[in-house]
Design goal:
InterPro entries: T6SS_TssF (IPR010272), Tle1-like_cat (IPR018712). It comes from Xenorhabdus ehlersii. Pfam families: T6SS_Tle1-like_cat, T6SS_TssF. Keywords: Coiled coil. This is Type VI secretion system (T6SS) ImpG/VasA family protein. It is a single chain. 40% of the residues lie in helices and 16% in strands. The strands form 2 sheets. Strands 1-2-3-4 form a 4-stranded parallel sheet, sandwiched between helices. Strands 5, 6, 7 and 8 form a 4-stranded antiparallel sheet that branches. Helix 1 runs antiparallel to helix 2, helix 1 crosses helix 3 and helix 4 runs parallel beside helix 6. The protein is an alpha/beta fold. It has a domain of 95 residues.
């Protein structure tokens, strides 16, 4: 009788075979390699990319929602329609989708033309012959990361190939474009799709989701910032005398020089920890008891999402400068409340955004300001918790 794990593995293989046959007709050798692989990392990577491709395509093909919204909005309007303009904002892969959609507007995508024509219904759109898909007024994007693994690039997300998602921004694609990117993101697995030097781009302190939002108002970080390792040793061996303990110390020393991570460690609790499996005491060939030991470097801290609010205000200022109208937030709206120590920094950040958009030199955060932001408000997105979750803090 097959174990539950074996049954799950066989189901996963069957699912991947069906999926690969569906999307890899043009590359049968690659499909066969993927579905016949016994490497769990390949299985997970392929599954992730297949989901990502399907997810992005679903979002971008869902033009019907635009038609429905347009139809509802026009119920309040009796006159002819003089112009149609889009304000587009997106974060991460949503930023890639926003750039792709802006291209569809710019290139007068026939599917979009038809959806808009249906949406206008009996109303007369005066600019239909010149701008059948309207125009993009504002394109505001947060830390664009397409990270598209396609069959053409061998499912490698580290290349500039974005498959069918078109993120290039030709001249005239939008009246105003502004991009905010993350200073404290490790980029190998999260490669940035920059728009410099063609358009204004501002790099801000923060990890990827500090820039675009996504963290909880308050979080407790207990993060393995070096890779957890384990080994079996004689019971008499001190945990801190093992090679894995020394390796974690060496890696911590290296991390303290990494520009994306090192600033987050200052004035925060960082320790090389060891763990021992108290239920695992095998004997070696000499009948000596042994123990299983693990070691890694751990970052401990409490952290809020308040810096994301500052970044939001900077993007909102750019949007308002372009003509986008926002309702005034309520005094009780927690999404706009800042701790007093960030109030002046928010004003400085807004001015930095304005300077970049005007092609002027900005006044950067000084060392003291950066230290405050990065040690108290910037999350650490680079860690090994998914690998080391079996070890207890």
């Amino acid at each position: 009788m097959k174990s539950e794990k074996e049954s799950l593995y066989l189901k996963e293989r069957a699912y991947l075979r069906e999926l690969a046959e569906h999307i890899a007709k043009e590359s049968p050798h690659l499909a066969e390699f993927l579905v016949s692989s016994h490497d769990p990392d390949i299985v997970r990577v392929f599954e992730s990319f297949a989901f990502l491709i399907a997810n992005l395509r679903d979002k971008l093909e869902d033009i019907q929602k635009i038609k429905i919204e347009l139809t509802e909005s026009l119920k309040k309007i009796q006159d002819n329609i003089r112009c149609l303009q889009f304000d587009i904002i997106g974060f991460s892969r949503g930023a890639a989708a926003a750039r792709h959609f802006a291209n569809r507007v710019f290139n007068r995508d026939p599917i979009l033309v038809q959806a808009l024509t249906d949406g206008f219904n009996q109303r007369r759109y005066l600019n239909k012959s010149t701008y059948p898909t309207g125009k993009s007024r504002f394109l505001g994007i947060f830390d664009t990361v397409a990270a598209m693994g396609t069959l053409r690039n061998g499912l490698n997300p580290h290349t500039a190939d974005t498959g069918d998602v078109y993120i290039c921004l030709p001249d005239g694609i939008a009246e105003h474009i502004f991009h905010i990117t993350a200073m404290n993101e490790c980029r190998y697995n999260f490669s940035l799709n920059s728009i410099k030097p063609d358009y204004p781009e501002l790099i801000f302190p923060g990890a990827h989701s500090d820039i675009g939002g996504g963290y909880n108002p308050m979080e407790t970080e207990r993060l393995f910032i070096t890779r957890p390792r384990s080994l079996t040793v004689d019971e008499s061996t001190p945990n801190n005398a093992t090679w894995i303990y020394r390796k974690a110390q060496e890696e911590l020393s290296q991390i303290r020089s990494y520009p994306a991570i090192a600033p987050l460690l200052h004035n925060n609790e960082v320790k090389v920890e060891t763990w021992q499996n108290n239920q695992f005491y095998p004997r070696n060939e000499l009948e000596r008891f042994q123990k299983q030991v693990a070691s890694a470097t751990v970052l401990y801290r409490e952290i809020t999402n308040d810096w994301s609010k500052v970044v939001m205000l900077v993007m909102q200022d750019a949007a308002q400068e372009s003509g986008v109208i926002f309702s005034k937030p309520s005094d009780k709206d927690d999404d706009y409340k800042l701790p007093s120590e960030l109030t002046a920094l928010a004003e400085k950040a807004i001015n930095q955004g304005r300077a970049v958009r005007q092609g002027q030199s900005l006044i950067p955060f000084n060392a003291e300001e950066l230290a405050l932001i990065q040690t108290k408000y910037v999350h650490c997105s680079s860690h090994w918790n998914s690998v080391g979750g079996r070890f207890q803090f």
